[in-house]
Design brief:
The structure is a homodimer of 271-residue chains. The first copy, chain A, is an alpha+beta fold and 271 residues long. Chain A has a single domain, classed as Jelly Rolls (Sandwich), CATH 2.60.120. Helix content of chain A is 40%, strand content 17%. In chain A, a hairpin with a 3-residue loop joins strand 9 and strand 10. The N and C termini of chain A lie close together (7 Å). At the A-B interface, strand 5, helix 3 and helix 4 of A face strand 5, helix 3 and helix 4 of B.
Chain lengths: 271, 271
DNA sequence: CGATTACTTGAATTCACTCAATGGCGGTGG
DNA sequence: CCACCGCCATTGAGTGAATTCAAGTAATCG
């Protein structure tokens, strides 16, 4: 599949209009953002810790993760990125990249210049706020991860992570009947939850035996989301979805707001 | 001690000028931000999870922490806040507060209206960027916390936390000869590192016996920071300090940049 | 001075880890 | 088409780090 640059902007616009209704001029500015598409294999570093960033990128297809290595060589994943995410948006105003980002499945990535983005943010406060908000939601997810890893046992922790993943995928239309494409190894899940790969296998088995999940090679099914939420102590508030009322941040909002381009949604991510 | 509103703005200005050099107009806008000062006892909630925020606040004196409770009642602290921090800046563009913030020592707090802040950010892109950057650094710290809690053992984890605390305090001039005011209970430290209070006691003892730290009731001394850094696998890059070069984000920077008001620094926080 | 809170220490337990071996699946190449 | 290799997942056994429970000490405060 090929992905046109203009399609990229649709993704961004769609994502935000639930929160900020953008004017014609604003959406046009986003459309004009030059984007360069690239495809990655699994397990390829997209950006590396310590580098000085000139670009940022949007995930169009596939999953990626942010991670760091300890001096002992252990790996910790601190974020999972799904289509529609801008995993390294934080680099917009940070000089050095503080964590590496790697594709965990084959990925289609849209790169753009940070400088271009900074210019847009300077000119359009509302777009700036929309991007800013993205990074704030990411931080909120990180806070929940700290709680999850710090205070919940492996079983609960994994249930929580899977709930989060499902709900986020749902928000971009990648879940059907509680089932979604899930080509993520147990080793990756272990690195994301701070447990060992062996224990991950055992805990997943327990979740399976309790009927909370069904796993196949490439897919994961959640027959009863409510039960999984309960098992994972999952409360979706921290994801800050469905906050359309937040549009009120700019009460005297600009000119004519664009209507959503809805049909870009469903077909978008599915391969 | 009393803290004048104008003093608050000095704090902010000082903090940022190392990264963004602000124009007269911009510093004035910050000075004009109406601020309301308030004093809190230890262990008082300053903001509560679930509320809809209208204000944000700056820590002027004392320490605070962001936390959440699990359904079992366990507590996890996901951020420690020191003077100069704006702990809930994330609420600027999030509708609901996703974690509570509590004073862990007596605190002097400066409140301001989020609406006022949004207006400033709309008018001054560089101020917006400066605030934004604050939230990005907070997120970077959260990522490191995920690594710390997820992949390091208790001993290393605590050493790391103490290093971070020391380095951050150093940046606002609150450390003398490796010694700083540290009226934080072991229970709080335990909640911040995701271990039990009992184990915290044991691990601190080990750190003491290895000569890495000296504890007294209200103070903590680090005789050899390099050794503690090594023990904690601590690399300060993630704090994104000393990035003055980042001023280059706005190459065609505005009018005449203000000079630092240096003397506001040392006397500021000390009680 | 008694009450409360913070810290320490010991003992037993448990959750999760490491090490190690095995089984399954998918791709590759003879 | 089958044999082989590599990756991933599983399972068992033994270990270990951190937990809970419990008791006791030290410091602080009204």
């Amino acid at each position: 599949m090929d992905v046109s640059p203009s399609y990229l902007s649709l993704l961004l616009i769609r994502k935000w209009e639930s929160v900020f209704s953008l004017s014609e001029e604003e959406t046009q500015a986003i459309r004009d953002l030059p984007v360069h598409t690239m495809v990655f294999e699994s397990n390829q570093d997209i950006v590396r810790i310590g580098d000085c960033p000139l670009h940022s990128f949007l995930v169009l297809k596939g999953f990626a993760s942010s991670y760091k290595l300890t001096t002992v060589g252990d790996r910790q994943i601190m974020a999972l990125h799904i289509p529609g995410d801008i995993p390294d948006l934080q680099n917009l105003y940070l000089k050095r990249i503080d964590c590496s980002i790697v594709s965990i499945t084959p990925c289609t990535i849209g790169f753009f210049q940070l400088e271009d983005l900074r210019h847009i943010c300077e000119r359009f406060p509302r777009i700036s706020a929309a991007f800013w908000r993205e990074t704030l939601v990411d931080a909120s997810i990180l806070r929940e991860w700290v709680v999850n890893i710090g205070r919940r046992d492996a079983y609960t922790r994994i249930a929580h992570l899977l709930c989060e993943f499902l709900v986020r995928l749902q928000a971009v239309g990648l879940v059907e009947n509680g089932t979604f494409h899930f080509p993520i190894t147990q080793a990756n899940l272990a690195d994301a939850t701070g447990i060992s790969a062996v224990h991950m296998s055992r805990a997943l088995k327990a979740l399976r035996e309790n009927g909370l999940i069904q796993t196949s090679r490439m897919h994961l099914a959640v027959p009863d989301l409510e039960r999984l939420k309960e098992a994972g102590e999952f409360d979706p508030h921290y994801l800050h979805l469905e906050e359309n009322a937040a549009a009120g941040f700019f009460s005297a909002a600009g000119s004519k707001a664009t209507t959503v381009i809805d049909d870009c949604r469903a077909n978008a991510f599915r391969g």
